[in-house]
């Protein structure tokens, strides 16, 4: 049984051609589509504009640490937050196996702990590693797995994975706005 939101997402796609060259032939069309959505939210070119990794390219530690106002999140905090939610989905895919997020805390992480290019690059590496691990876990899923709801969750795995892709796109938009407010990337806030 495919959930209604996944059916809507799948509508209009030729499921026989969804897998990319990099994907294993044993991946089901549903898993292939979820991998595609995950990749298009993070690091693959897509029609919707900049993806999460693309929005972070070329941003310096100082720019990443900038806040539009006291109490507002920075680009740096958004990047680490996105990494944490990739980990959170991954933990559910692994049926609760902990393993742990590489940084202490959860959800929102005050950043920077140290304002340096190395600290910024280290946190970007955490984001890239969480994406890689999440993608590998998704590749190992079956359609039956996608239809299941992890213990302690109210959301089926297929919807968690789609939500993760949408989460990346949402925060990519926020990062683009923060960059524009700083004058990064040309243009003005008005357009």
Task: Jot down its keywords.
single chain, 191 residues, mainly alpha, Four Helix Bundle (Hemerythrin (Met), subunit A), 8 helices, globular, disordered C terminus
What does the average pLDDT come to? 85
CATH topology of the domain at 45-97 and 105-182: Four Helix Bundle (Hemerythrin (Met), subunit A)
Rg for CA atoms: 17 Å
So, CATH architecture of the domain at 45-97 and 105-182? Up-down Bundle
Q: H/E series, N to C? A: HHHHHHHH
Stretches where pLDDT is under 50 for at least 5 consecutive residues are: 8-24, 187-191
**Pairing-aware structural class of the strands and helices?**
mainly alpha
Helix count from the secondary structure assignment: 8
Q: Quick one: how many beta strands? A: 0
- Classify the helix fraction into a percent range: 40-55%
Beta fraction: under 5%
Quaternary structure annotation:
single chain
Q: What is the overall shape?
A: globular
CATH class of the domain at 45-97 and 105-182: Mainly Alpha
- Most strands sheet: none
Notes on the protein architecture:
The protein is an all-alpha fold and 191 residues long. The chain has a domain at 45-97 and 105-182: Four Helix Bundle (Hemerythrin (Met), subunit A). Helices cover 54% and strands 0% of the residues. The chain has eight helices and no strands. It has helices at 4-10, 29-42, 52-56, 61-65, 75-93, 117-139, 143-146, 157-182. Helix 2 runs parallel beside helix 8 and helix 5 packs antiparallel against helix 8. The longest helix is centred in the last third of the chain and has 26 residues, at 157-182. The radius of gyration is 17 Å and the shape is globular.
């Amino acid at each position: 049984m495919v959930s209604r939101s996944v059916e809507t997402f799948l509508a209009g796609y030729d499921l026989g051609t969804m897998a990319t060259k990099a994907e294993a032939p044993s991946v089901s069309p549903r898993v292939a589509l979820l991998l595609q959505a995950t990749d298009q939210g993070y690091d693959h070119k897509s029609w919707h504009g900049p993806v999460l990794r693309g929005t972070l390219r070329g941003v310096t530690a100082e720019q990443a640490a900038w806040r539009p106002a006291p109490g507002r999140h920075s680009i740096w905090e958004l990047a680490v937050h996105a990494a944490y939610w990739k980990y959170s989905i991954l933990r559910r895919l692994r049926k609760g196996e902990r393993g742990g997020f590489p940084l202490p805390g959860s959800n929102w992480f005050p950043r920077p702990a140290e304002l340096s290019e190395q600290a910024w690059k280290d946190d970007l590496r955490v984001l890239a590693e969480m994406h890689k691990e999440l993608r590998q876990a998704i590749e190992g899923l079956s359609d039956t797995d996608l239809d299941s709801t992890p213990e302690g969750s109210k959301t089926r795995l297929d919807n968690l994975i789609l939500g993760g892709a949408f989460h990346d796109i949402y925060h990519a938009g926020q990062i683009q706005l923060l960059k524009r407010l700083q004058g990064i990337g040309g243009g003005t806030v008005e357009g």
